[in-house]
Write a structure and sequence with these properties.
The protein has 13 helices and ten strands. The chain is α/β, with parallel strands linked by helices. The protein has a single domain, classed as Alpha-Beta Barrel (TIM Barrel), CATH 3.20.20. It starts with a helix and ends with a helix.
């Protein structure tokens, strides 16, 4: 799919009421290709995993210059729609057009911006952007996009940071009224509670869970259109690399690590050696 087809496909998936679409998070191009080859329909890049790969906590340190290059590479090297975390948008409403233009030009299919000012992933009191100011940012994003199928998603952390679903419902509805294509909720605990307030949200809803207690089927029943599984790939990679390093350091015998390593042929297939060999056969080596 080209860039425009990806965006059209994402909008179709968002509007599908029959099931909740799982969205897998990638932390680099290799993980994105694995997700694509496995058969998932949508990719995601987030500030947490991008910060983690740079040794940074997700407390506002990850910026446009960190997230944009990854988005561009994944969009270029895969055929799936890509939703990109754009944090708070990094700019006030008058300047947020740059965020939209950069991600749109990079080939992303959507961005989400959030109403958190401070407090995410910290022990300190959270601060959310005033609702009216967030609505202005949404309006500015919608006005800035050039492709109407480039989705603007509005995230509220009112449940995650303040444990206030009523405020979350009010905020998401206001953001949808301002022009957002979907609302994005981070929730805690069982997804069964989501159904209680999902019915009062007047548009598509994307969710992500802090602790992933439920299955996709439960999220479908609760009324979620999409669910972002942002940490699975990087958590799996972290655990596997850590186990391999510890086992090799202690046992000093790499031959016992074949469960994790030595599948060079599969990696070569994933990164594109077959395409290179086909091109050599077609055009020659010199």
């Amino acid at each position: 799919m080209d860039m425009h087809q990806k965006r059209q496909r994402l909008r179709q998936l968002l509007e599908d009421q029959s099931e909740c679409t799982p969205i897998m998070g990638a932390y680099d191009v290799l993980s994105a290709r694995i997700i694509e080859q496995t058969g998932f329909p949508v990719l995601y890049t987030g500030s947490f995993v991008t910060g983690a790969t740079k040794g940074l906590p997700d407390v506002g340190l990850v910026q446009l210059g960190d997230l944009l290059p990854l988005a561009r590479e994944i969009a270029k090297e895969t055929s799936l729609p890509l939703i990109c975390d754009a944090d708070s948008g990094w700019y006030h409403a008058a300047n947020i057009w740059r965020t939209v233009h950069e991600f749109e030009s990079a080939g992303a299919s959507a961005i989400h911006i959030e109403d958190t000012v401070f407090g995410k992933h910290t022990e300190f009191a959270p601060v959310l952007l005033e609702q009216d100011a967030m609505c202005q940012r949404i309006r500015a994003c919608v006005d800035a996009r050039r492709d109407p199928n480039f989705l603007i998603i509005a995230r509220s952390d009112a449940i995650y940071l303040k444990d206030d679903p009523e405020e979350a419902v009010e905020r998401i509805n206001a953001y949808l009224e301002a022009g957002a294509d979907a609302g994005f909720l981070v929730f805690k605990g069982s997804v069964s509670s989501l159904a209680e307030y999902r019915a009062r949200i007047k548009g598509p809803v994307i969710v992500t869970s802090v602790d992933f207690q439920d299955a996709i089927d439960a999220e479908t029943q609760a009324g979620a259109n999409m669910s972002v599984y942002w940490p699975l790939a990087i958590f799996a990679a972290f655990k596997a690399v850590k186990q391999v390093c510890e086992a090799f350091r202690e046992g000093r015998d790499a031959s016992k690590l074949r469960e994790y390593c030595f599948d060079e042929g599969l990696i070569n297939k994933t990164v594109g050696y077959e395409r290179f060999n086909a091109n050599i056969g077609k055009y020659g080596a010199v």
